[in-house]
């Protein structure tokens, strides 16, 4: 027994020392390998993930804001364009309408003129025919009367009479 | 009956061949088994959304990591030190606290011990054995040296103790710095002794505190068994925690000191 020495009095025994060291080593190994390593990794992973998530959220927020701005701008542009289109369309339509009206007026006037000339010429034509007819009639009538014994005086009278009536 | 005061040396309970199994070894083996079971449970618990025991374990790890961070100021270093510092802390804490459970010191075998028959407790707090605390202290100090060598290189680490490099540098400068270098060489040699002192102080502090607590509780229980020892029980719970913190914190400081490079030219 080594009880006489100081280390012996304090109970130091290399076998027990080694046994305790091994026990402690096992605990440390388990703690390191099975607890700290996986959990530490999980903790780091989670932290990274949360950071990533927050960053993503920020990014999305910014993107959303940008998009909103873009949308408002685009809406303004589109509205302006639409207004423009509407205005030009109205203008064009008005112009066409005006033109159509003017054209129609023109056409109508033309037709009216045509009709008037037609009527005029027809009137002259028929007048001519009528005159001819009347002349023929007069000649026939005068012949009839002359045949019905008429003096020269009467004849002349008749002729002038009938001529007057024309 | 009168309880016998626990002797300084852990009592042998049985023999495996010519290997003596003491009651403190039984207690530290219980700790091993408990940590083993805990490790098996936690091994595959790496869910991103923690529940139950994983949550608990994570919160404890985070607290310890926070403490380590305050000393190292470096998360990477903290993660390296966490297994050693956290393992020491949890093992010491667990050993101290199961030593307070009823049954420790009272369940035992009647054996012939030092000449006469007496009750030898089956369980005795692991840290009331100097073998245990010395094993941890030696481990902690050696680990700090290993970390130091890995962190700053063998020769530069050796220069902390045997400052031949500093003497060599001082000759190039000449003058008073040669004398300073020789004095610092002596200081470096003293540092070697302080490393031994670290082991002794770490192991004896823990052993002394826990052993004294055990003696105190035994004495009180043998005087008045009921109610009166309770405040001292609470005190021992506190002492168990404090000693675990002190041991692991000192180890952490040693680790941190060993892995930081001394400002070489700062004092020249």
Automatic annotation (TrEMBL), chain A:
Annotated family: Belongs to the ATPase B chain family.
Segments traversing the membrane: 16-36
Subcellular location: Cell membrane; Endomembrane system
Lipid bilayer topology: Single-pass membrane protein
HAMAP family the UniProt entry points to: ATP_synth_b_bprime (MF_01398)
Keywords, ordered alphabetically: ATP synthesis, Cell membrane, CF(0), Hydrogen ion transport, Ion transport, Membrane, Transmembrane, Transmembrane helix, Transport
Task performed by this protein: Component of the F(0) channel, it forms part of the peripheral stalk, linking F(1) to F(0).
Predominant location category: membrane
Species of provenance: Candidatus Doudnabacteria bacterium RIFCSPHIGHO2_01_FULL_45_18
PANTHER family according to UniProt: ATP SYNTHASE SUBUNIT B, ATP SYNTHASE SUBUNIT B', CHLOROPLASTIC
Complex and partners: F-type ATPases have 2 components, F(1) - the catalytic core - and F(0) - the membrane proton channel. F(1) has five subunits: alpha(3), beta(3), gamma(1), delta(1), epsilon(1). F(0) has three main subunits: a(1), b(2) and c(10-14). The alpha and beta chains form an alternating ring which encloses part of the gamma chain. F(1) is attached to F(0) by a central stalk formed by the gamma and epsilon chains, while a peripheral stalk is formed by the delta and b chains.
Alphabetized GO MF terms: proton-transporting ATP synthase activity, rotational mechanism; proton-transporting ATPase activity, rotational mechanism
GO cellular component: endomembrane system; plasma membrane; proton-transporting ATP synthase complex
Xref: NCBIfam families: ATP_synt_b
Gene name linked to the record: atpF
Protein name, as recorded: ATP synthase subunit b
Lineage: Bacteria, Candidatus Doudnaibacteriota
TrEMBL record, chain B:
Membrane-spanning parts: 24-42, 81-100, 132-155, 176-194, 206-228, 235-255
InterPro entries: ATP_syn_F0_a_bact/chloroplast, ATP_synth_F0_asu, ATP_synth_F0_asu_AS, F0_ATP_A_sf
Molecular function (Gene Ontology), one example: proton-transporting ATP synthase activity, rotational mechanism
GO cellular component term, pick one: proton-transporting ATP synthase complex
Topological category with respect to the lipid bilayer: Multi-pass membrane protein
Record key words, sorted: ATP synthesis, Cell membrane, CF(0), Hydrogen ion transport, Ion transport, Membrane, Transmembrane, Transmembrane helix, Transport
Any single biological process term in GO: proton motive force-driven plasma membrane ATP synthesis
One Pfam family from the record: ATP-synt_A
Location of this chain's protein in the cell: Cell membrane; Membrane
Family membership noted in the UniProt record: Belongs to the ATPase A chain family.
HAMAP family: ATP_synth_a_bact
Function field: Key component of the proton channel; it plays a direct role in the translocation of protons across the membrane.
PANTHER family reported in the protein's UniProt record: ATP SYNTHASE SUBUNIT A, CHLOROPLASTIC (PTHR42823:SF3)
Record-given protein name: ATP synthase subunit a
Organism: Candidatus Doudnabacteria bacterium RIFCSPHIGHO2_01_FULL_45_18
